[in-house]
Amino acid sequence: MKNEPTGILGNGEYGFEFSKFILNWTPNLSLYTSGRSALTREQSRLVEKHQVRIIEKEIRELEHTNGYLRNLVFTDGSRSAIKAVYTKPGFEQNSRIAEELGCKLTDEGYIETDQSQKTSVPGIYAFGDSTTPLRTLSVTVSTGATAGMMLNKEFVLERF
Fold first, then answer.
1. Residue 74: CB partners within 8 Å, gap ≥ 6?
2. Ranges for the FAD/NAD(P)-binding domain (predicted)?
3. Edge-to-edge strand order for the sheet containing 53-55?
């Protein structure tokens, strides 16, 4: 929402990096750390230099009207008017099949693959949302095509 009160719900490296990105969309930006800031002094200085406010109050709830965000409500009862908020929710696989087969997961919970989309288990390939935080159809198509080509190559080489 261009030029509207906008927030980033995050802290540390994520909050710092995402502030730089979202600042291109609106000059009315606040970084809500929901508690003590984990930004370094240099990160805080740079963020504040660009008029991004760092709010360290703990957030109790997001207040809305018919699904339209109105305020962040803090544990002390105060409110901050806001029209949009961005955050990075944690990731969890919807299925445990990869784990049950023995596939290694990344620290973030994605199935670990190489450039060919091979997993840590021979003969098993993975692609798309289960392997990357890049949630786009084009990435899914690309990694799926790669997995298909590499699996086909594996079959051909087995018979040759």
1. 57, 58, 59, 60, 80
2. 39-135
3. 53-55, 29-32, 6-9, 84-87
Amino acid at 124: I
pLDDT digits (tens, 9 = 90+) for 60-69: 999 999 999 9
The rounded distance, in Å, linking the Cα atoms of 87 and 11 is: 10
Strands (E), the chain: 6-9, 29-32, 53-55, 59-65, 68-74, 79-81, 84-87
**CA-wise closest residue to 71 among 32, 22, 27:** 32
CA–chain centroid gap for 128, Å, is 15
pTM of the full structure: 0.70
CA-to-CA distance for 64 and 73, rounded, in angstroms? 10
Q: What is the mean pLDDT of residues 27-50?
A: 94
On whether the CB atoms of residues 6 and 26 are closer than 8 A, the answer is yes
Q: Give me the residue label for tokens 């051909």.
A: 156
CA–CA distance, 21 with 36 (Å, rounded to integer): 22
